């Protein structure tokens, strides 16, 4: 249960009075480290039941389906400049056209055939313009960073809702931090994208261009799968830790929520792919747009998995706090990273209330 929301138009989402440290929060990290269970295995059976039930309820209460839709929108915005940067990077070694075709094939295999058809003329033009590869890489990289920062910012707002806190960091502090997080996540995304693109003939072609032997290419074709998994795990860990306006006890390379999110994503993607292939009628309903619709739904499912994992991590933190004796029934007891914007917003809200009160008393 949440207290009244002081300054937002959405009632009941966050507790009021968040200026300064969060009310009732134990901000002493040493005390928390001594009293809280360090790992999920130290939680009691009763605590685990509470955590699981709370995770499911909070996932619904926080309207994560809507949050996932917003994240899908920002993910789509970041895709095109990302493709340009990736294609230009490989184009610098003279294999841009082959890489472009591989990218289009991957999109087609993901069910985004119509998107691939839309992107094909632009990607092929970039692939054949070798003299502009360097410029395209810089422009594409800048566009990818800026567009992807919108996704990271939206993810941070979603995480704030998960942890029941408002954003308190001023823009001059928040924006550079989110751009830094974006760069880290983008770097990891590039690793995954390169691992997907540089496979089979494409990997051999790049290996030949760089003077690498066939043995190195063979090793890469085997090692790319654990590399991709590791990159995804680290990216999720960074998003979970760095984006919300809460100071978590410590950075976890692998959290229970992150593992669950990745497992749910893999299983849900496989199940969705099976459904689309065997039972759906998207082609009859959407015609030429069916591929794009399927791809957007897959992105939405992926973001749902990420948010469900975040909810589990938040409720595990609540469970650890409750088991250690902290009053976390209504609010997770983690201090805010910054509260200056919250204080300013509350001051403005009090001014508006006072102005409204004067109007009411004097009938205008």
Automatic annotation (TrEMBL):
What keyword terms does UniProt attach to this protein?
Cell membrane, Membrane, Transmembrane, Transmembrane helix
List where in the cell it is found: Cell membrane
Q: Its GO CC terms? A: plasma membrane
* Ranges of biased composition (kind: Basic and acidic residues): 23-35, 345-356
Start and end residues of each stretch annotated as Disordered:
18-42, 345-364
Domain of life of the source = Bacteria
Give the matching InterPro entries: Virul_fac_BrkB
For the keyword Transmembrane helix, the answer is yes
* Membrane-spanning ranges: 71-94, 132-156, 177-202, 222-241, 253-276, 288-310
- One Pfam family assigned to this protein is Virul_fac_BrkB
Which membrane topology term applies here? Multi-pass membrane protein
**Per its UniProt record, what PANTHER family does this chain match?**
INNER MEMBRANE PROTEIN YHJD, UPF0761 MEMBRANE PROTEIN YIHY
Query: What protein is this chain from?
Result: YihY/virulence factor BrkB family protein
Native species = Nocardioides iriomotensis
């Amino acid at each position: 249960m949440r207290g009244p929301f002081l300054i937002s138009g959405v009632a009941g989402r966050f507790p009021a009075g968040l200026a300064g440290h969060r009310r009732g929060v134990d901000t002493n990290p040493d005390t928390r480290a001594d009293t809280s269970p360090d790992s999920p295995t130290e939680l009691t059976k009763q605590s685990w039941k509470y955590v699981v039930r709370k995770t499911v309820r909070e996932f619904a209460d926080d309207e994560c389906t809507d949050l996932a839709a917003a994240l899908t929108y920002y993910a789509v915005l970041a895709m095109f400049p990302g493709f340009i940067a990736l294609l230009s990077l490989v184009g610098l070694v003279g294999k841009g056209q082959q890489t472009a075709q591989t990218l289009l094939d991957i999109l087609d295999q993901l069910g985004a055939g119509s998107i691939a058809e839309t992107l094909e003329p632009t990607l092929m033009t970039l692939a054949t313009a070798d003299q502009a590869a360097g410029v395209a890489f810089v422009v594409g990289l800048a566009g990818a960073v800026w567009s992807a920062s919108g996704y990271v910012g939206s993810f941070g707002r979603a995480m704030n809702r998960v942890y029941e806190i408002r954003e308190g960091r001023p823009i001059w502090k928040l924006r550079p931090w989110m751009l830094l997080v974006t760069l880290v996540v983008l770097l990891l995304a590039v690793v995954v994208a390169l691992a997907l693109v540089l496979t089979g003939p494409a990997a051999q072609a790049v290996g030949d261009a760089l003077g690498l032997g066939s043995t190195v290419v063979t090793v890469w074709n085997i090692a790319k799968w654990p590399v991709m998994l590791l990159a995804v795990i680290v990216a999720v860990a960074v998003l979970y830790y760095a984006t919300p306006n809460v100071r978590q006890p410590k950075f976890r390379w692998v959290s229970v929520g992150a593992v669950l999110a990745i497992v749910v994503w893999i299983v849900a993607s496989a199940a969705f792919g099976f459904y689309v292939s065997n039972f759906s009628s998207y082609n009859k309903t959407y015609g030429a747009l069916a591929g794009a619709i399927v791809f957007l739904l897959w992105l939405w499912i992926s973001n749902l998995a990420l948010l469900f994992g975040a909810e589990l991590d938040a409720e595990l933190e609540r469970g650890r706090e409750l088991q250690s004796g902290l009053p976390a029934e209504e609010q997770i007891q983690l201090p805010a990273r910054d509260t200056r914007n919250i204080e300013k917003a509350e001051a403005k809200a009090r001014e508006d209330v006072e102005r409204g009160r004067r109007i009411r008393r004097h009938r205008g």
